[in-house]
Design goal:
The complex is a heterodimer of chains A (291) and B (259).
Chain A: E1 13-16, E2 27-33, E3 37-44, E4 47-55, H1 60-72, E5 84-88, E6 100-101, H2 104-116, E7 122-126, E8 131-136, E9 142-148, H3 156-166, H4 173-176, H5 192-204, H6 209-231, E10 237-240, H7 247-257, H8 272-290
Parallel strand pairs in A: 2-5, 5-6, 7-10
Antiparallel strand pairs in A: 1-4, 2-3, 3-4, 7-8, 8-9
Helix pairs in contact in A: 2-8, 3-6, 6-7
Chain B: E1 2-8, E2 12-19, E3 22-30, H1 35-50, E4 59-63, E5 75-76, H2 79-90, E6 96-100, E7 105-110, E8 116-122, H3 130-139, H4 144-151, H5 165-177, H6 182-204, E9 210-213, H7 220-230, H8 243-252
Helix pairs in contact in B: 2-8, 3-5, 3-6, 4-6, 6-7
The chains are: A alpha/beta (291), B alpha/beta (259).
Chain lengths: 291, 259
């Protein structure tokens, strides 16, 4: 293949809390191996200490290993220092160093509760290859959920396809989609394959790229709306997952639901599942100690 | 009596001219982005081959996703209506018809006059249409014409998890990493697509005489997978992609079964 720019490639990230010294504390970890991205979160005595967020490779155990190693980088931590690890996400049973696998639905609710506070009742997790609407209580326990994992419309992967088609870096899609004269009608095809054909036609008609992006962001918001309508939205409402970083979709969805969407806090919204996993790991570790 | 059927599909435009219920010419042109222009081109081609003029046509019926984009026509008729009529004309015993086109899949049941009794359509999702095999052959870097025959050389049945075309593209990449042979992958792709089509046709039920038409009916790999899935041998007429246009021309001639 010629070296075509990879417009879909989103920025990987890692972070360490400079105010915490992990030594002497209980270290627990959550590793979320998704179909597109993998995250590792490390907690020290239940406080967020470090995380990594990277692209999933073709091999789940390998991706889990890479994510945890990157999170531990330059911290002096070793795998042996981690008291308990929970694996979650699509590849949760393939996290070789974990003691337990917990579904991403439970982890996202728990992580969302930690990130956005106990008032959050609806969490929309917009992942790479699926989209889940989760209802939870004030402790972050799941009360109901709905998901689409069959179709790329309304998922991060669909957005990647569009970024590639239009030659726009996926990180810029949101901002560019607002750099338009008037808001266009949403792209009418549901299927990403057909939406691509439709977008090519719009470009041929002379639509500027940004307008096509706006039409796609709005189609995605609309698609998500139909999922949310089926389960209902209870306030407060927060979004996790990669699409939470795409203002083009989030702002349009906000307009459509007519409810304020909680601002993405200081954390990367993609790590919600891994945070939930790490919190479960802490709880499970504590429970084991008491026995 | 001379009639014309125009079938404007998502990818190709097909035209059939009938004289006293015999096909005297047919043409097939890529729709492209300027559909009206391509439709005119297809019509001109068919007229020229038949050696007649537009004025010689007694009646013209247009069908397909883009039926209204035909430069001229007397009436439009539903695709399922045209499909059934065309299928019964070519295979009088046909009571179930499956039409798999570039962007749509349809299943229908009809009576001996070609009248539609029940039908099911998928036009929302690429997974049950030609677009799926096209995307997969591209992902596997196998020319589309070779993709079907390659599938027949498969040695193993490998299930595909993804339904969505976009997700399936990633899945075949994983299969490549896992050193699955291209023949086995082609089989997996056709099996997956056959399963989508068969679940659609099962919703309305089917008889033993099933006719398969549309552009995808030329794909031997898909036919094989569909036969296995349905547990019968589907009948594929010659030039299966023209059956819709043929049905439209038959409808224009007022044909209602028999010869």
């Amino acid at each position: 293949m010629p070296d075509k720019p990879e417009f879909w490639r989103w920025t990987e990230s890692r972070w360490t809390n400079p105010d915490i010294d992990w030594k002497g504390k209980v270290i627990t970890a959550g590793v979320d191996v998704g179909s597109v991205s993998s995250q590792a979160v490390i907690l020290a005595n239940g406080k967020l200490y470090a995380y990594s967020n990277m692209r999933t490779g073709s091999d789940s155990p390998d991706s889990a290993m890479k994510a945890i190693n990157w999170a531990m980088e330059k911290t002096g931590l070793k795998l042996n220092d981690i008291a308990y690890t929970v694996g979650t996400g699509y590849g949760r049973v393939n996290v070789p160093f974990s003691q337990r696998a917990i579904t991403e639905i439970a982890c996202h609710a728990r992580g969302g509760n930690f990130m956005y506070g106990p008032s959050v009742r609806t969490i929309l997790d917009m992942g790479g290859q699926d989209c889940k609407a989760i209802h939870c209580d004030e402790r972050g326990k799941v009360t109901n959920f709905l998901m689409n994992d069959k179709c790329a419309a309304g998922t991060g992967r669909g957005m990647e396809v569009f970024a590639d088609l239009l030659g726009v870096s996926i990180n810029d899609v949101g901002d560019l989609s607002f750099d338009i004269d008037t808001e266009p009608q949403p792209v009418s095809s549901t299927c990403v394959v057909y939406a691509k054909t439709e977008a090519t036609g719009l470009l041929r008609e002379g639509w500027p790229k940004n307008k096509v992006l706006a039409a796609y962001c709005s189609a995605m918001a609309h698609r998500i709306m139909t999922l949310l309508e089926r389960i209902g939205i209870e306030e407060d409402f927060a979004i996790t997952g990669g699409i939470a970083k795409n203002k083009g979709v989030v702002k349009r969805l906000e307009k459509e639901v007519g409810i304020k969407i909680m601002e993405t806090s200081k954390y990367d919204p993609q790590i919600a599942g891994a945070i939930g996993g790490a919190l479960f790991a802490k709880a499970l570790y504590d429970k084991g100690k008491r026995k | 009596m001379i009639t014309m059927g125009i079938d404007i599909g998502a990818k190709n435009i097909k035209v059939v001219i009938l004289k006293d219920n015999k096909i005297i010419s047919k043409s097939n042109v890529l729709a492209g982005f300027e559909v009206e222009k391509s439709a005119q081109e297809a019509i001109n081609k068919a007229l020229k081959d038949a050696g007649i003029k537009k004025e010689d046509l007694d009646k013209v019926i247009s069908t397909g996703t883009g039926e209204k984009l035909a430069p001229f026509y007397n009436e439009t008729k539903s695709v399922v209506g045209c499909d059934s009529l065309g299928a019964v004309f070519l295979h009088p015993a046909a009571r179930s018809v499956i039409d798999v086109g570039a962007e749509e899949g349809r299943g229908m049941r009809c009576d001996e006059t070609g009248r539609v009794l029940d039908f099911e359509v998928n036009e929302k999702c690429a997974a049950g249409a030609g677009a799926f095999t096209e995307a997969m052959s591209r992902a596997l870097e196998v020319p589309l014409e070779e993709f079907g025959p390659l599938s027949l050389k498969a040695t193993e049945e490998i299930p595909m998890n993804a339904q969505c075309t976009v997700f399936a593209e990633s899945e075949v990449v994983t299969m490549v990493h896992n050193k699955v042979s291209k023949a086995n992958m082609a089989r997996a792709v056709h099996d997956a697509m056959a399963s989508r089509i068969s679940s659609m046709i099962r919703k309305i039920g089917f008889d033993k005489d099933v006719v398969l038409i549309g552009g995808v009916a030329k794909n031997v790999g898909f036919i094989d997978s569909l036969n296995k899935d349905l547990g019968l041998k589907v009948v594929v007429p010659k030039d299966p992609e023209y059956v819709g246009a043929l049905g439209a021309a038959l409808a224009a001639a007022g044909w209602k079964g028999g010869k």
